Amino acid sequence: MFQIDFGESSETVVGIDLGTTNSLVAYMDAATPRVIRGEDGDNLVPSIVSLAPNGEIVVGNPARQMLIDRPDRTVYSAKRLMGRGIGDVQDELKLFPFRVAEGSEQVVRIQLGEKQFTPPEIAAFVLRQLKKNAEAALETQVTKAVITVPAYFNDAQRQATKDAGRIAGLEVLRLVNEPTAAALAYGLDKRKKGTVAVYDLGGGTFDISILKLHDGIFEVLATNGDTHLGGDDIDNLLIHIALEDIQSEWGEDLSIHGEAVQTLRRAVIAAKESLSFLPSAQMEFAFHGKTYHREITRELFDRLITGIVDRTLGPCRDCIRDAGVSVEQIDEVVLVGGSTRIPLVRSAVEKLFRAKPHTDLNPDEVVALGAAVQAGILSGTLEDNLLLDVTPLSLGIETMGGVVSKIIHRNSTIPASASESFTTSVDGQRNVLINVVQGERELVKDNRPLARFDLKDIDPLPAGMARIEVRFLIDANGILNVTARDARTGKEQSMDVRPMYGLTDEQVEAMYKASIDNAEADFHARQLAEVRVDADAILAATEKARQSDAYTDLPEEERQAIAKAVNELLLLYHGQDHLQIRSKIEELNAATMTLAENMMNAAVKGALKGTKL
Ligand code: ADP
Ligand code: MG
């Protein structure tokens, strides 16, 4: 449904996986997504940023060395701080050596040597490096990108990611959920429909997502995970073992030597990574002339990491439950994240989901590859016009006359938010009913009821004077939060609903089709309902005005004109011609003009203002 017009230019749009541990950039080479290498020949750019003493910014592998040499000027895992305030990140500060600048409040600032940077600025350094790598490889300027974010990222975190792009000189055409990108990389959007589980075990985070696909639309049914679980935990376990060995062999406690621990970390990571392909590996480490050596077999390794792998299973089960599906209903399983190369992880996933997971693509590249596919779609390189992460049906509330006022339209990308102001229909009204419905039809009765609640104790005012703000927010999991607020008193009431719960694809399809089949009749019914609401309002206001002194003071012919207009309106009121009713309303409006002016009656004047609940 969307179409982005790039005019004549066909500039390459790149896809970027901005990861906690590693980041990478990919592009569409004809119809195939490809990862772009850096100057060092590495596809992955470690998400590490360092401020060299000469003021230069160093990113990626060279910065990794700085982690050892100048930890006070180097930062990693900064994605954990994106779009978050100091209150949100206390857990992270306990676990990671972030040096947060003093006075950080709304926005966290990271101290690197003598300078301070916000998380989006740090991320922008990584993005600039990726942009540079892409420009070198493609021999052209790159200014547009699709960037991926975890499915659970909230509005602020997504905004921070967009800001990072802007700071790096990249126009972010789209943020795509990481699991959606992974599914795209495997071309799962080509399926007509299905349920896909995406299991992502990276360096420091574990995410499980269940997506539902219908006609090229991905919907995130549920997400779960553990923001402190990943390959780092395995590294720490191996480091611990090595440190104990060294303690007993050398009689030395190396754990207090930051530099030694970092070097050891590299040694155990190398051993761990080769254990994914070989039956045994060597942990080798030299320090101050002494050497340490130990062989680890796959069997021992598996036993050591069983606890870590098992910690991913609970969130998987919770996610399946929250998605409202059974294991048998999951058609495809996709593995993402470097740590899913570990054979024990693969077999655990296979056992839990009772299906062979997709493993053809490099698990640490699949998100970037999927981002490139999305970039290709947006830039028109790929024909396919598919929609991603959208709400398949409109969401709205009931307004006067049983008419629906749509607040979020179908095919809006999620997360989405929208708000609208409404007013009251009765003088002195104290409660308003918020009736939330889903569907494409014009009248409430033809839509699917989702939820209803009362906003109570609003300020009693003449009809049309109150301002009730209704805000809809669908998060990345597709959960809809509806909030109604009396603008005068600030009183509010809210409710969460899961709009797609229990709806089959066939039902969604049928609802959409019904709206097309009934479009003309619905349009007419809506016009009629709306015009009658307006008629009710002016009739009630006129009736009230006729009790007043101002009315008695009117010249006889004006009173007769009002009575005539009222009668004519009443005669046509139940007819089917909305235009006729509208013209009678206008006549009555004209006939009561002087009266209204004389009375300065807010009810008459205000009666036609705003959509009434
Ligand atoms: P993130 O999404 O968190 O940025 P990645 O998906 O790049 O991270 O995963 C990084 C993790 O994957 C690191 O802990 C790394 O050691 C691990 N990893 C990479 N290759 C292998 C391998 N062959 N075997 C086991 N773990 C691996
Ligand atoms: Mg990742």
Can you summarize this structure?
With 613 residues, the protein is α+β, with helices and mostly antiparallel strands.
Kindly describe this structure:
With 613 residues, the protein is of the alpha+beta class. It has four domains: 13-186 and 365-371, ATPase, nucleotide binding domain (Nucleotidyltransferase, domain 5), CATH 3.30.420.40; 231-303, ATPase, substrate binding domain, subdomain 4 (Actin, Chain A, domain 4); 395-503, Substrate Binding Domain Of DNAk, Chain A, domain 1 (Sandwich); 520-608, Substrate Binding Domain Of Dnak, Chain:A, Domain 2 (Up-down Bundle), CATH 1.20.1270. It is built from 18 helices and 27 strands. The strands form eight sheets. Strands 1, 2, 3, 4, 10 and 11 form a six-stranded mixed sheet that branches. Strands 14-13-12-17 form a four-stranded mixed sheet, sandwiched between helices. Strands 20-19-23-24 form a four-stranded antiparallel sheet. Strand 8 (110-112) and strand 9 (115-117) form a beta hairpin. Helix 6 crosses helix 7 and helix 15 runs antiparallel to helix 16 (578-591). Mean pLDDT is 89; it is low at 1-8. Magnesium ion binds at residues 19, 202, 337, 367.
